[in-house]
Amino acid sequence: MSTRSLRTAASGMYAQQINIEVISNNIANLSTTGFKKNKAEFQDLMYQDVAVNPITTKTPGIKEVSSDTLQIGTGVQPTSSQKIFLQGDLTSTGNTYDLGINGDGFFQVKKPDGSLVYTRDGTFKLNADGKLVTSNGCFLEPEIVIGSDAASVTISKDGVVEVVDSAGKTTEVGDIQVARFMNPGGLTSLGDNLYAETTYSGTAVLGTAGANGFGEIQQGYLESSNVDIVEEMVAMIAAQRSYEVNSKTVQTVENMMSIANNLKRT
Amino acid sequence: MVKGIYTAARGLEYRLKNIETVANNLANVNSTGYKREGEFQQLVDKMGQTEVRQVRDYSNGNFVNTNSPLDLAIKGEGFFEIKTENGIELSRNGKFTLSEDGYLVNSSGDKVMGERGEINLTSYQLNENKTLQIDRNGEIRVGDEVVDIIKVSTVASTQDLSKTGGSNFIDESQEYVSVEEGKFEVMSGYVEESNVNPIIEMQRMIEINKDYEAAQKIINTIDSSLDRLKEIGRV
Predict the structure, then answer these.
(1) CB A180 to CB B131 under 8 A?
(2) Domain assignment present for B19
(3) Does residue B46 lie within any of the structural domains?
(4) Each residue's pLDDT tens digit, A147-163
(5) Residues B204 and B142 in one domain
(6) Which end of chain A is more exposed for a tag (fewer CB within 10 A), N or C?
(7) ipTM tops 0.90
């Protein structure tokens, strides 16, 4: 008796296990600023041409392979875990250097090693030199230097940074640009809310925030994770049930095998 | 009498093949663009020739928003044309990305076909005023410039297509024809989920299991009848 369906069901169970792992990572990052949820992707495996009916009455007892064939699939394989770049909620923090992007795009930041990476996490701070840095020490690129005698800082929706010094004089110190990609799904996650450009994502296109499809910058706001707990719970239920249903296949096939075993009475 | 055993045994084989298709449907409950396999039927024509027909359900799956512009789903009829090593294959799986050399490819790295051939996006450097957009009729535009139109094709008899894995279909005996405009919509930022309904599959599984049991009972009954036969001949 062929065990193809057992292996098919096993591949289905394995796929759902991967699915649960992705969902649990989403749930764990429910409160991570700027986190983008993942979705596991699956594809069907190869198909086999199987003879429909090997048993014929013409020559009893002799297996004659019928010319009629049938395509039978062999299961499923996980292919990728894709980031879903849907907007997260912008929550007000009131902090001057907390920036959220409302719409499409990323902040371009430079890691201490000099490489350019991208993030949606706008929790910026001032370092000792008065430069804007992310919480993990990456400089905003192009650099924004606020200076030490700033009384207040305003960042407009199109990214222009204006500093009012203690004397009441307003100076423009630079503007924060937003980077977009042709295929954001192709970016690689580096952890720490950072993404790196790949050949699949296309090169970064820098532009003025708020113009031509680039997202607006919101000062005093942070973008929450775009994980929706209800949606993840539903996905988890569905994954668990799919796992169960595949295990039912194993049980059913096992039961059929035992029936086949009982064909001969004594 | 003995013929009956073979008829019943064929019933067992037939159910076994069907449970394999159910198992595959259930395993692919989350596969992008997967189309569920129905029960297969063996038909006998006037000449006594048998023919197998496998009914495949081509109804649309759910469309899920991914917000990624290169994720495409076809609402309505038709398939994407994918250039693979086996030739052009059809697929409803529109999870596309860019290859290293700038071609629009699927997750296995096979190129997606447009009306003008393979679609290459490298020469279209995006900038602030030029963004990529894919329209409902499949037109890929960078700014105001039309790069290409995504080919959406079908065949005369979709039931004769065979599957090659990865939600792809192929049929070398039939010509691919473009689907008329208006019969489909290309939705950018969406993917089509599998159209498998686990409830229907579970119901089929129960049915097949019971039928299998019944066929076994028939064999047992015939077997015991044959047993009685010995007693008739006893002197």
Answers:
(1) yes
(2) yes
(3) no
(4) 777 888 899 999 999 99
(5) no
(6) C
(7) no
Kindly state whether residues B155 and B229 are assigned to the same domain: no
C-alpha B178/C-alpha B184 separation (Å) is 11
Tokens 């430069």 correspond to what residue?
A131
The DSSP 8-state label assigned to residue A249 in this structure reads H
**What is the model's pLDDT at position A70?**
82
Tally of domains in chain B: 2
Residue B171 belongs to a domain: yes
pLDDT band, residue B169 (cuts 50/70/90):
very high
SS3 assignment, position B192: strand
The model's pLDDT over B120-160, given as tens digits with 9 standing for 90+, comes to 887 666 655 667 788 899 998 887 788 899 999 999 888 88
pLDDT at A67: 65
Tell me the pairing of strands A188-191 and A116-119.
Answer: unpaired
| pLDDT tens digits, one per residue of B36-56 | 988 877 766 666 666 777 788
The answer to whether residue B9 neighbours chain A at the CB level (below 8 Å) is yes
Are B227 and B188 within one domain?
no
The whole model's pTM is what?
0.80
Q: State which residues form the domain around B124.
A: 63-192
Nearest-Cα residue of chain A relative to residue B142 = A182
Integer angstrom CA distances of residue A125 from A102, A129, A194, B167: 20, 11, 16, 48
Percent of chain B with pLDDT over 90: 37
Residues B96 and B211 in one domain: no
Helix axes A229-261, A4-28, angle to 10 degrees: 160
Instruction: State whether B131 and A68 contact (CB < 8 Å).
Output: no
Tokens representing residue A33 in the block: 């600023």
- Taking each helix axis from N to C end, the angle separating B198-232 and B2-27, rounded to the nearest 10 degrees, works out to 160
Return the residue of A nearest to B51 by Cα: A68
> Rounded distance, CA A203 to CA A195, Å?
13
